[in-house]
Every structure is written in C-alpha cells, then in structure tokens.
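Supplementary Text 2. Reproducibility record for the structural model of the 308-residue chain.

All settings were left at their defaults, and a single model was retained for analysis rather than an ensemble. We include the record here because the model underlies the residue-level annotations in Supplementary Table 4.
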Amino acid sequence: MSKSLFTRKSFVKGLAGGALTFAGLVGAGFARANEAANGPSVAAIYLGVEKQAFVEKDGDTDHLDTVWVYFDDMTFTQYVFDDDAAFVFSTGTYKFEDNGSFNYDAQADAKASITITREQKYNATEGLAPYDSVHTYDLGTLGYLKIFPLENAAAPDPNAEFVGLPNPWSEVASADEAASGAGFDEFDVPETLEEYGLGRGYETIYRCMKGIAEVRYELGAARITVRKGSPVEGDDISGDYNQYALTWTQDIDDDLIAICSGNQEDKAIKIIWENDGFDYSINCEGLGGDSDYGLDAQVLAELVDDID
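Retained model, structure tokens:
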C-alpha cells in the first residue's frame, strides 16, 4: 500500500474509555491537518471493524477495519487499517437524500439516506486510482459506529469528548439466534450458497437488530446479504436505495412474486418480496470491480424459495 498516514495506535488511543476528542482526530490526521486553516472541517466520522473488503494481488479477499471521514464541503476520505498502519482507500463526494443528516437516532425508524460517489479507490495493482461508482445507503442500518457527531450535537468544542452512538446491530452465531434477536420465531436460510452455483464462501455472518434478521455470505469476489424483517409501510428492509436501470417482477410460485432491480437483464442486484406477513430482501455486491454482479432467474427463484 501507499505511505502510512498515521498508525492504528494513534487512533485507538483516542477511543480509550469509549471517548474520542475532536482535537485528537486532527492530530491523528483525520481532519486534513495539512489543509489551510479555512479548509473543510470534519462533519462526521464512522468506524467499521472488518468492514471493507479488499482483494489482494493473489485474489484472496480480506476485510479491513475502516474509518469514513465526511467533510462539510460534501467530500469524504475513507481510510483502512492494514496491520498497524492506515491508508487512504477511497475519496469522493456525498449527498443526503430526503433532507437527511448525520444527526439521527440509529435506534429509531428515521432514515439517514446518503449517496456516495467514489472518485478514487485503492486496488492492489495500481494503488489509489480513478474510480467511478455511485451507491445509496441508509447510514442507520450499515452497522458502522458513528463516533462523531453525537445526535443533535452542536458545533464541537475542539477539546470536548464525544461518545459514539451504540451500534443497533448485534452479531450472533446462527440464524436461530438472529431470529430470536429480531423477535421472530424463525429465520430459515441456507448455511452456504455453494449448492446454488455461487461459489464456496469463506465466511457466513449472522446479525440482528429489533425487527430485522440478516445473514451475509462472503464469497470472495462478491457479497450476498439476505434480510427478513417486520413490514415497514412505504419502504423496504434492504437498506439499498440505489437507482437501477431496470426493475422487473419474477414469479417464484403461485403466491409469491419478487420485485427485482439491476442494471442488466437477468442480473438482479436487489430482490425484495413479501411472504406470510414478513418483508424479505436479497442484495448482491460485486467486490472485484463487477458493479453489476447479480443473480440470474434460476438461481434467484431457487434461493428465494429456500428462505423463510
């Protein structure tokens, strides 16, 4: 990777006791300390543990700790930790949808929908290189810890301490535990996706929050996330608010119809459906540069039929 900007230790020590100082972030390099005094200020900071997929030169995929720093000029810089050093992983711009903001209650139903446009992204061959991707997410359901600002926080005192909001997601050991944590009787999903011809996964992660159970299949060059949740009027539970070129329906059986979205025919990136009083979703994400990675009709039907 490129030259280290700062070390994990310089950041982690700022989290001692669950607190973080705004001035400490500047000292660690997050706040663009090398910018002019009238340059952009930090608007928000998010921390994710083992969140950022990174494909090594040998094709293996690792998941690195990452910090997203958003600035008040509507730009962002994403850092990742590799071993003990931190590096710039991506840069770009952001905007909020539907009057969203960084001040929201992650435990409430309110959405914090943000659109991220990456203009540079690190890869193992070229380093930090030009990149073009646009994704829209709900900040409250991504599973990142917001460490600055607090809900309803005013402009920061440079030496004040800020305690992050709790992560609404809990990682659990099984689908049964995810169902229990979400408040459901069951969450039936395949243990792996190998039988669907999607490759041998190296990790299956179960999570839950109130009203939603989730399983994430890490397939190396792709990630597939399945959710089951209590119905939300006028919304779906996927957490994916991207705009896709195509939307179509697919009959799964006589009583079940899936709504599919993607940018190419027969490659569904987002699939949502209802069954027996619950909402369901499948999201596909290509991690090796295939931004249109998705499921074909046959695999989609087989997988949806096996989820309950």
